[in-house]
Amino acid sequence: MTPATTFRDALTAGPLVLDGGMSNELEAQGHDLSGTLWSARLLRDAPDAITAVHRAYFAAGAQVAITAGYQATYEGFARLGITRAETTALLRRSVALAREAAGGTGWVAASVGPYGAMLADGSEYRGNYGLTTAELIRFHRPRLEALAEEAPDVFAVETIPDLREAEAVLTALDGLGIPAWLSYSIRGTATSAGQPLTEAFALARSSDAVIATGVNCAPAADMASALALVDGLPGVVYPNGGGVWEPTARRWLGAEDEGADLAPSWLAAGAALVGGCCRVGPAEIRKLADRVSASAAG
């Protein structure tokens, strides 16, 4: 990319390949992610490990790195005695680590996980936290402001389970001057909370900040049908690598699957950002990048 090129420009120029899961690669390196902060703990304790994962994905063909800030929140860090100032520094570090790994040739998407990710109990697959929209805005806005200080190319507002939280994040994005994609956790063609995806994607279209919308952290087989409902925006899709997350045991149950072969169907359904989420590693991203390249070549 050149200094004059924006992420929005790159998105319209052709499909971009996202990276895969951060946590699975950190665990493969031997890091214990059993705490409530999950991979976000390593922003403080092992930042070099995070940079190494970003580099592995770029080497595999990813063009966009999603930062390790999915569960990095002021509330979550405060429970472990980390001050507000330290949390701001760690949020900014999440962007800086990805920027370092990108080396001037890749894009950086600052992860903005849902409120449920901070709870670490699987709530991002249910939604309906019992909070008002105003309370959710107060939760999201400070983190967005801290991330914006490090100037990511785009916000990855991801795994959002319901419309109330989506509305809150979109409001919190106002005035920050950084584009965002908005992706939902889903059940079939509804959000995890049960609202029609047509309504969820319409909400995304209503925000000037949103440049793409779609789904993530769901089975690969569900991606094409969900993407078919996106209208008026480029699609984004990054499914899990198979199985079902069991929040009590904090582990994936079931076999892994291969989603890269489905990439042509995602592109045909309007996807402009394609990648992987949980249980998807560099080897799978390499296969995905090859499929995307072949489809773009015609």
**Under the CATH scheme, which architecture would be assigned?**
Alpha-Beta Barrel
Shape: globular
Described by strand count, sense and barrel closure, the largest sheet is:
8 strands, parallel
Measured by DSSP, the beta-strand proportion falls in 15-25%
| SSE topology string | HEHHHEHHEHHEHEEEHEHEEEHEH
Quaternary structure state of the chains depicted: single chain
Number of helices: 13
Which fold name fills CATH's third level, the topology? TIM Barrel
Query: What gyration radius follows from the Cα positions, in whole Å?
Result: 17 Å
Which structural category do the helix and sheet elements fall into? alpha/beta
Distance between the termini: 23 Å
Write down the domain tally. 1
Molecular structure report:
The chain is α/β, with parallel strands linked by helices and 298 residues long. It has one domain: Homocysteine-binding-like domain (TIM Barrel, Alpha-Beta Barrel), CATH 3.20.20. Helix content is 41%, strand content 16%. It contains 13 helices and twelve strands. Strands 1-12-9-8-5-4-3-2 form an eight-stranded parallel β-sheet. Strands 6-7 form a two-stranded antiparallel sheet. A hairpin with a 2-residue loop joins strand 6 and strand 7. Helix 4 runs parallel beside helix 6, helix 6 crosses helix 8 and helix 9 runs parallel beside helix 10. It starts with 6 loop residues before the first helix and ends with a helix. The mean pLDDT is 91.
In brief, what are we looking at here?
This protein has 13 helices and twelve strands. With 298 residues, the chain is α/β, with parallel strands linked by helices.
